């Protein structure tokens, strides 16, 4: 490597990362996903922008040869780590526990887009097919591409709307996990044969067997080893996140190398390693967030900027193709997922919300499209159409779910005294004696016996089972364990305070000093969203939490909740009302 090559590489890398971070934050300020700003960086610095205006500068900053190979190596590492982050979002415990409803929605959510993509792949003209002689491979890819959801985008949308811990939110996350597991495995296995222009049955079977063996090795004995190592590392709380980050990076690179060697794309190795780590109960939420922040702030911006760096989006933008791809992708996902959710018993409003949530394609779709373009499965016009569809579906998901699940938000939404009223009718423990989350839930549940009688025992079982699936520590000293209970006709709340704090596995690593136990009627999805939002808003800022922690009687606690609820409700119309994601 010559000194000039290193200089050009470092300058181009620094420029891409710096501009991508700036434009990403600008996009976030306007309520758009970070990836929009990162893609815009590629448009400005690449073939669409800088090459047209200052071709000499573009040629010096992004030459062929060694600098391009070094930048490609950086983005290869970024791709693997992005799939690790996606894998960390997959909780196999949730997948196992959601049962028939998630399987039905996931199956239809894959089959319908797969069918739509196959039909689209055979109907488009030869001019947009990467290799017209292999239209079947192109059609298969389009089917897989339309089937996948973007786990990180889905998770972020649910968090922003305060839906992540709700029944609807858990269903959406479970289905997204299943769709991505199947979609990425299918794409990774098929990409090798696609690069060769055909599929040989013997080679394909061998590849599938080896890939399956690798996945099982990682997820069964491998995860046990990971559990032991994480248990040893997590004993040192301050240094644990950095050490786990190093461990994840090392294992991910080794896993990616293994899958690349057996003929499957390296992304599958990163994804499986991410699932193995994410499924470990020893991985703390704070450590998970550290890994996520590292990848999304250092590697992801460069990768997504490079996506648009070498493609002229102006010359390859086909409005008809973009519209058709968007409509087929959205219609197929909505029909499959919303229809599946309705079949399992959800009302139409919640079913459509599930469909729109899973319709978000986001960064994962862009990544998949780039890999297919590099393999010459698709041309630049289809690539631009898929990127456009990925951004449009991601932008549509949040507002659509909000409209469907918060239909009366414009008419005042939740009354400011809901949280106070629920605690007044429920129970209050000013000093919890418990030191663990399970014991705290049991202690609060017993305090509700005068209100719900013999329903306490099944309620506690439901809450404890749900806590294993999705820990309810929200951060900033607050936890809201909750569950639906057969036989209840209205929500019931018990509030407990713990000066020393109780570990509910919160994202910020802090123990919960304020614990709301919430019990709900079954299938009261909209009510669940509203009550969770009311409770979280009642302790939104630090002053409210400190005031509540000083309460020694039920009336004092109710007064604190009521006063803060009224203050938040009385904010000016332009002030954003907080959701669970803000706590």
Protein model, in words:
By secondary structure, this protein is mainly alpha-helical. It has two domains: 3-405, Na+/H+ antiporter like fold (Up-down Bundle); 418-582, Mannitol-specific EII, Chain A (3-Layer(aba) Sandwich). Helices cover 68% and strands 5% of the residues. The chain contains 26 helices and six strands. It has helices spanning 3-29, 34-45, 50-53, 55-61, 66-88, 92-98, 100-123, 135-147, 151-160, 167-195, 201-219, 221-233, 240-261, 266-278, 285-307, 319-343, 348-358, 362-374, 380-405, 418-425, 437-447, 449-452, 456-469, 525-538, 542-549, 554-569, and strands at residues 427-429, 473-475, 478-479, 482-484, 492-502, 512-520. Strands 1, 2, 3, 4, 5 and 6 form a six-stranded mixed sheet that branches. Helix 7 packs antiparallel against helix 8 (135-147). The radius of gyration is 25 Å and the shape is globular. The two termini are 49 Å apart. Mean pLDDT is 81; it is low at 409-417 and 570-583.
């Amino acid at each position: 490597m010559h000194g000039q090559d290193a200089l050009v590489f470092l300058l181009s890398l620094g420029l891409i990362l710096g501009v991508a971070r700036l434009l990403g934050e600008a996009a976030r300020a306007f309520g758009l996903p970070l990836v929009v700003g990162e893609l815009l960086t590629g448009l400005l610095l690449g073939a669409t922008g800088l090459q047209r205006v200052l071709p000499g500068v573009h040629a010096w900053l992004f030459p062929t040869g060694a600098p391009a190979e070094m930048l490609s190596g950086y983005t290869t590492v970024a791709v693997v780590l992005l799939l690790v982050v996606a894998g960390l979002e997959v909780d196999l415990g949730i997948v196992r526990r959601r049962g028939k409803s998630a399987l039905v929605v996931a199956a239809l959510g894959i089959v319908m887009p797969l069918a739509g993509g196959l039909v689209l792949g055979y109907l488009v003209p030869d001019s947009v097919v990467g290799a017209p002689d292999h239209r079947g491979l192109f059609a298969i890819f389009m089917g897989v591409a339309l089937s996948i959801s973007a786990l990180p985008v889905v998770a972020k949308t649910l968090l922003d709307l305060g839906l992540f811990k709700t029944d609807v939110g858990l269903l959406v996350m479970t289905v997204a996990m299943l769709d991505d597991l199947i979609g990425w495995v299918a794409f990774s296995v098929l990409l090798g044969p696609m690069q060769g222009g055909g599929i040989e049955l013997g080679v394909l079977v061998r590849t599938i067997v080896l890939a399956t063996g690798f996945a099982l090795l990682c997820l069964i004995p491998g995860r046990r080893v990971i559990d032991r190592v994480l248990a040893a590392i997590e004993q040192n709380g301050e240094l644990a996140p950095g050490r786990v980050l190093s461990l994840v990076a090392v294992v991910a690179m080794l896993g990616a190398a293994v899958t690349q060697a057996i003929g499957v794309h390296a992304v599958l190795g990163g994804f499986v390693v991410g699932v193995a780590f994410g499924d470990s109960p020893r991985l703390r939420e704070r450590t998970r967030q550290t890994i996520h922040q590292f990848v999304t702030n250092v590697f992801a911006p460069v990768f997504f900027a490079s996506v648009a760096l070498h493609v002229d989006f102006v010359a390859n933008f086909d409005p008809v193709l973009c519209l058709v791809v968007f409509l087929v992708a959205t219609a197929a996902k909505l029909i499959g997922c919303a229809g599946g959710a309705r079949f399992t018993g959800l009302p139409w409003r919640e079913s459509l919300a599930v469909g729109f949530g899973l319709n978000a394609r986001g960064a994962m779709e862009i990544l998949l499209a780039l890999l297919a373009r590099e393999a010459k499965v698709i041309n630049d016009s289809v690539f631009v159409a898929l990127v456009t569809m990925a951004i449009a579906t991601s932008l549509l998901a949040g507002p659509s779910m909000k409209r469907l699940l918060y239909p009366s938000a414009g008419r005042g939404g939740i009354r400011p005294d809901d949280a106070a009223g629920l605690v007044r009718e429920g129970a209050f423990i000013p000093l919890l004696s418990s030191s663990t989350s399970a014991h705290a839930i049991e202690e609060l549940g017993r305090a509700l016996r005068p209100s719900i009688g013999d329903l306490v025992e099944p309620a506690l079982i439901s809450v404890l089972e749900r806590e294993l699936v999705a820990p309810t520590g929200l951060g900033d000293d607050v936890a809201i364990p909750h569950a639906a209970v057969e036989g209840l006709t209205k929500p019931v709340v018990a509030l407990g305070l713990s000066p020393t704090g109780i570990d509910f596995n919160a994202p910020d690593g802090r123990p919960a000093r304020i614990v709301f136990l919430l019990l709900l009627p079954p299938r009261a999805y909209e009510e669940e969203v509203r009550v969770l939002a009311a409770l979280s808003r009642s302790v939104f800022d630090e002053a409210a939490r400190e005031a509540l922690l000083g309460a020694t009687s039920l009336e004092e606690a109710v007064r604190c909740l009521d006063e803060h609820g009224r203050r938040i409700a009385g904010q000016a119309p332009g002030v954003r009302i907080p959701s669970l994601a803000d706590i």
